Amino acid sequence: MNENENNLDQHELEKIRMRKMKVLMEAKKRKEAAQERIVSISEKIDYVLKVVLVPEAYNHLKNIENNEPYVYQAVYNELISPDVIQNIDYLLAIIQSRGGVPRKIPLDAIIYLERKAKGIKSKIQVKRGDDMMDLSSFLSKG
C-alpha cells in the first residue's frame, strides 16, 4: 500500500510539473510574440518614415538617431503620434495602394524639429544701415 501511495504521489508531482512547464512555455511564447509585434511595428514605422521623408531628411534623422538618441526621440515623437502607431497597418495600405505619398517631408522640417528639441532659437540677422539686428527686432521696429 505504501509503495502504491508513493507512486500516486510521484504521479501527482509529475502532473504538477507538467502543468507548470506548460504555463511557462505559454508565457515564453506570448513574450516572444509581443517582441515580434514590437519589432514589426518599429519596422513598419521605419518604412513609413522612409516613404514620407525625402531621402536627405531620412538620412539626417537616422544620423540623429545614432549620435543623439534623446534628440531623436523628441523628433520621433513629433513625427509619430500614438494615432499613427495605432493605424500603422491602415497607413501602409494607403501608401501601397497609392504608390507613395503626394508630398514628402523635406530636410528643413527635420532640421527645424531637431533645433526645437535642442532648444536652439533662430538667429537670423538683418543689416539696417550699419546696424546688425535679429529679425524679430527688425520686424517689430518696421
In short:
This protein is 77% helix and 6% strand.
Report on this structure.
This protein is mainly alpha-helical and 142 residues long. The chain has one domain. It contains 7 helices and 2 strands, in the order H-H-H-H-H-H-E-E-H. The chain has helices spanning 2-52, 55-67, 69-79, 82-86, 88-98, 107-118, 135-141, and strands at 125-128, 131-134. A two-stranded antiparallel sheet has the order 1-2. Helix 1 packs across helix 5, helix 2 crosses helix 3 and helix 2 runs parallel beside helix 6 (107-118). The termini are far apart. The relative contact order is 0.09. The model has no long low-confidence stretch (mean pLDDT 84).
Keywords, please?
142 residues; mainly alpha; two-stranded antiparallel sheet; elongated
SSE arrangement:
Elements: H1 2-52, H2 55-67, H3 69-79, H4 82-86, H5 88-98, H6 107-118, E1 125-128, E2 131-134, H7 135-141
Antiparallel strand pairs: 1-2
Helix pairs in contact: 1-5, 2-3, 2-6, 3-6
Give the biggest sheet: 2 strands, antiparallel
| Count of discrete structural domains | 1
Cα radius of gyration in angstroms: 29 Å
Give me the side-by-side strand order of the main sheet: 1-2
Order of helices and strands: HHHHHHEEH
Mean pLDDT across all residues, rounded?
A: 84
Number of helices: 7
How does the overall form come out from the CA principal axes?
elongated
- Total strands: 2
Instruction: Compute the separation of the termini in Å.
Output: 106 Å
Q: Which secondary-structure class do the elements indicate?
A: mainly alpha
Strand content: 5-15%
Unreliable residue runs: none
How helix-rich are the residues, as a percent range?
Answer: over 70%
